[in-house]
Amino acid sequence: MLHYIAFLEKLLWISSSIFFIYMVYYIFFVPFAFRKQSPYNIHAPKCRFAVLVAARNEQAVIANLIESLLAQNYPKELYDIYVIPNNCTDNTEQVAKSAGAKILHCQRPVSTKGEVLDQIVNQLLAQNKHDAICVFDADNVVDAGFLSAMNNAWCEGAKAAQGFRDSKNPKDTYISSSYSIYYWMVNRFYSHARSHVGLSAIINGSGFMADLSLLKSMGGWKTKTMTEDIEFTTKCILSNIPVSWVPEALTYDEQPLTFAQSWRQRSRWSTGIYQCLHYYSIPLITGMFKSGFKGLRMRLDQLVFLLAPILQLVWVLTMLLGHIVRTLSMHYHIYVGTPILSSIVLSVVVSFILSCVTSIIVMLLEKKQVGSMKIGILSYWFFIASWLPINAVCLFFRTKEWKSISHTRNVSVSEMK
User: Fold this and answer.
1) Distance of CA 228 to CAs 1, 158, 235, 318, 359, Å?
2) Yes or no: is domain 1-38+50-406 CATH 3.90.550.10?
3) Per-residue pLDDT for 26 more than 50?
4) Distance (Å, rounded) from C-alpha 359 to C-alpha 365?
5) Is 171 exposed, middle or buried (0-12, 13-18, 19+ CB in 10 A)?
6) CB-based contacts of 327, cutoff 8 Å, min separation 6
7) Which 8-state DSSP code applies to residue 398?
8) pLDDT at residue 333 above 60?
9) Does residue 217 surpass a pLDDT of 90?
């Protein structure tokens, strides 16, 4: 028995050390989240944008998106709004056309957003009429200054850029509240913090810009995973192109309402990250020492990001091993008052308090109304904790189908103000 305990203790030390290094790495960026962002210089409108919206059964919300895009504080002759209906069984195309968008069609069957972008980007490259694309989801509404902010970044050399992703329904349910806090966390503690140390922000789904000359050098929009946004970020980093952070480019996004919808969506995200790890971990590692110090840092940072689901499971393994070792080291008298159960309760309580505190901090930093988000603050711990079983399941059973989430929150950009 002592031999087994010694082996488990060594395994526990290894897993604890790995997770400790992971946590220290992320804690390093925390102070930078509190720094003020310096905006880009204002430039005259120059970039010709193709605004792309891949839409599947979005007739309920797409008109508000197009209305907000037509209201941009940017010359109308410098951008085109293209809606790409795909696999629709409703009137998305007719509603989009009536609202003022142009319609593009895929020439081959598609099942994912990445496949849609692949075909449409090829069409745009052949036309040679635009300088960059901006990508939105059909349920978004967009601040009037979005294109101007992206033009400023593009004029200063940004080849890929992510705007601030906000929420248009943060108070609908505890799930939409948790999602809202999650995106504020990503905005502030990931993209904002990394922008201050010369690392890449992360493309996260919608409200982003990509230079067409960059896409041309990549052979078009060539992604093969369930998370085309994370994969594109990784490909930018492999090309030594950091994703710029442009918080002035604001997009409001509709969040899922139910836990079932959230599980389905986050399962796709976890699957996509595992796929990116499979396809790109070796290129990230082998290129670390061939692209200078900045390239090494960006590759290492992205590798740590892609390893996150694995490292979170390592944390669970560490906790389980710790309890097993303590159990085997005890006499057989486990009951409610034992240190093992007390430590479990303490871990839950401490992590719950920490999630509430960080939620409040990020809302104060982003000037959100804390009092109206009580349900999100209290449920955020559960939202994050539920990612552990999702990551565990997807490690062995990957999501194979892109299942859309119905959007019904019919909100205009003026209402968001």
Assistant:
1) 49, 20, 10, 32, 28
2) yes
3) yes
4) 10
5) middle
6) 334, 340
7) -
8) no
9) yes
**Token pair of 146 as six digits:** 């979005």
Q: How far apart are CA 209 and CA 231, in angstroms?
A: 15
Asked if 296 and 238 touch (Cβ cutoff 8 Å), the reply is: no
Tokens of 84: 């790409």
Residue 286 burial (C-beta neighbours within 10 Å; 0-12, 13-18, 19+):
exposed
Most distant CA pair in the chain, distance? 78
What whole-number distance in Å separates Cα of residue 109 and Cα of residue 377? 42
Residue in this structure with the two tokens 């309890």, named with its chain if needed: 323
Mean pLDDT across 188-198: 95
The residue ranges of DSSP E strands in 14-61, in sequence order, are: 49-55
Determine which of 36-50, 163-177, 240-254, 333-347 has the lowest per-residue pLDDT on average: 333-347
Which amino acid is residue 251, in one-letter code? Answer: T
User: pLDDT band at 414, cuts 50/70/90?
Assistant: low
pLDDT interval class at 412 (50, 70, 90): low
3-class DSSP assignment, residue 111: coil
Average the pLDDT over 151-166 and give the result: 97
d(CA 67, CA 221): 27
Torsion of CA 131, 133, 134, 135, to 10 degrees: 180
Calculate the dihedral angle through the C-alpha atoms of 313, 314, 315, 320, rounding to the nearest 10 degrees.
90
Q: Are 207 and 244 within 8 A, CB to CB?
A: no
* Pairing label, strands 102-103, 132-137: unpaired
Confidence (pLDDT) at 121: 95
